Amino acid sequence: MQLHLSTWPEVEAYLARSKAILIPIGSTEQHGPNGLLGTDALCPEIISRRVGDEAGILIGPTFNVGQAQHHMGFAGTITLRPSTMIAAMLDWTQSLTRHGFERIYWLNGHGGNIATITAAFSEIYHGVTFARAGDNRPPLRCSLRNWWEVPGLMDLCRQLFPVGEGSHATPSEVSVTWFGYPEAVKSVTMTPRIAPNGPILDADDYRRRFPDGRIGSDPSQASIEAGEKIVAAAVKGVIAEFKQFAAS
Ligand code: NI
After folding, report:
1. How far is the CA of 157 from the centre of ligand 1 (A)?
2. How far apart are the CA of 173 and the centre of ligand 1, in A?
3. pLDDT surpassing 70 at residue 98
4. In the chain, where are the structural domains located?
5. What is the whole-number distance in angstroms between the Cα of residue 68 and the centre of ligand 1?
6. Can you give the pLDDT at residue 138?
7. Distance from the CA of 109 to the center of ligand 1, in angstroms?
8. DSSP secondary structure letters along 15-37
9. Ligand 1 midpoint to CA 222 (Å)
């Protein structure tokens, strides 16, 4: 069940049986020579849609632009500054709590978002804490799960891609997007086959160190079949975790 494809009476009816919602959150940033700019938003979105279909869980619209400052040396990347992202996450959350939602599960697709999402949670809780004199236990809870850290998933990705998984523009994430959008599959020769590793500083330095955008990866190994396996495992793990969180 997706919020933007529902009517308000349908959302009101959902709220009568559950106060929990899942929001995919990601980034719009370069993902190497064969990866889509939307990869980090599409991965949690593709997984979430299946979670919604299979378990009747309400899926919010994808928060699809995040912290991508260090990718700004590559065309098409869009970034928010941290303060904007925190403010927007607060507004999304307060809109949802206004309707009665009390559990918000953010399924994240981008490592660069983690610090800001965590800061946004503090901002969200700050408002709740200080709004209720004498009681600083928020009735509202937020949860952050990075999709690649769903229990068991890293082992699966390592089995599928023992060499060249790397840390940015990975064959695993590209596979997930190709499973969701088979028309995006493209054959690109990677030079070198496995990208270099190194520190991430700001945009210009990133492009100098990692000229085609990849870090440590060989995404030419990506496949729809691998994406299907990863999504199936992620969906199972997210449903189990979401149900526990919703009942907490
Ligand atoms: Ni990514």
Report:
1. 14
2. 6
3. yes
4. 3-246
5. 10
6. 61
7. 7
8. HHH--EEEEEE--B--BTTTB-T
9. 13
What are the tens digits of pLDDT across the range 127-144?
877 776 776 666 899 999
187: three-class secondary structure by DSSP: coil
Amino acid at 95: S
Tens digits of residue pLDDT in 163-173? 999 999 999 99
Q: What is the structure's pLDDT at 128? A: 78
* CB burial of residue 187 (10 Å; 0-12, 13-18, 19+): exposed
The CB-side HSE value for 164 (13 A sphere, CA atoms) comes to 16
- The DSSP bridge partners found for residue 22 are 59, 105
- 147 pLDDT tier (thresholds 50, 70, 90): very high
The architecture of the domain spanning 3-246 is 3-Layer(aba) Sandwich (3.40)
Using the mean position of ligand 1's atoms as its centre, give its distance from the Cα of residue 123 in Å.
26
Q: Tell me, yes or no, if the pTM score tops 0.85.
A: yes
